[in-house]
Automatic annotation (TrEMBL):
<feature type="domain" description="Urocanase Rossmann-like">
    <location>
        <begin position="2"/>
        <end position="214"/>
    </location>
</feature>
<dbReference type="GO" id="GO:0006548">
    <property type="term" value="P:L-histidine catabolic process"/>
</dbReference>
<dbReference type="Pfam" id="PF01175">
    <property type="entry name" value="Urocanase"/>
</dbReference>
<dbReference type="InterPro" id="IPR023637">
    <property type="entry name" value="Urocanase-like"/>
</dbReference>
<dbReference type="GO" id="GO:0016153">
    <property type="term" value="F:urocanate hydratase activity"/>
</dbReference>
<dbReference type="InterPro" id="IPR036190">
    <property type="entry name" value="Urocanase_sf"/>
</dbReference>
<dbReference type="InterPro" id="IPR035085">
    <property type="entry name" value="Urocanase_Rossmann-like"/>
</dbReference>
<dbReference type="InterPro" id="IPR038364">
    <property type="entry name" value="Urocanase_central_sf"/>
</dbReference>
<protein>
    <submittedName>
        <fullName>HUTU hydratase</fullName>
    </submittedName>
</protein>
């Protein structure tokens, strides 16, 4: 319902075939995103750093494909988008790398390859494994978390700033992004990322929350 209503509200579209939804997280609650994309008929690319979560969703049949190669992900995205094929593709990697690659595609080809975007990392718990920084691989990040939590926190905040910078560039070109109620925008703001709504007070963000704007 969230994906369908986002399409209705922001894309003015009842039919999401050929539309691309990019997000992250295939864990306990976020794992439903892959299934939702296919039910809605769109192309869903979902990033996840933990391979175990990807394999679990694939085994369940909720996730159609898995890839750790961004070139392959972009090629499959283009193919499914062109042919209006419903697809859920799990990218085994950090969502910041995926967002930055989509910005690179926009810069080099002029093509905006994503229509809808969100995030379901556990940003209510960003410094204890809920969000993994793009600067490190999954295993290295877990090790740093246990040995130097202060440095881990610094890297998470740097990563959040990069994350938002990439989303902002794509949103400025017409992608519609929303907060999934996971404190992503709040933690990004605390990290110093540009998420404030222009001309509004500090508690208002430039992107809507799914609770009030999509499901409300």
């Amino acid at each position: 319902l969230t994906v369908l209503n986002a399409g209705r509200r922001y894309l003015k579209a009842e039919d999401l075939s050929g539309k691309v939804f990019v997000t992250s997280g295939l864990g306990g609650m976020s794992g439903a995103q892959a299934k939702a994309a296919v039910i809605a008929g769109c192309v869903g690319i979902i990033a996840e750093v933990d391979e175990a979560a990807l394999l679990k969703r694939h085994k369940q049949g909720w996730l159609m494909e898995i890839s750790n190669n961004l070139d392959h992900c972009i090629a499959r995205l283009r193919e499914a988008r062109k042919n209006k094929i419903a697809l859920s593709l799990g990218y085994h990697g950090n969502v910041v790398d995926l967002w930055e690659r989509l910005v690179d595609e926009l810069d080099t080809t002029g093509e905006l390859l994503v229509d809808l975007g969100s995030d379901q990392t556990s940003c209510h718990n960003p410094f204890n494994g809920g969000y993994y920084p793009v600067q490190l691989g999954f295993k290295e990040a877990k090790q740093l978390l246990s040995t130097n939590p202060g440095q881990f926190r610094t890297l998470v905040q740097e990563s959040l700033k990069r994350h938002v910078a990439a989303v902002n560039k794509l949103a400025d070109k017409g992608m519609f992004f929303w907060d999934y109620g996971n404190a992503f925008l709040l933690e990004a703001q605390r990290a110093g990322a540009d998420v404030a709504k222009k001309g509004a007070n500090k508690t208002e963000f430039r992107y809507p929350s799914y609770v009030q704007h999509i499901m409300g």
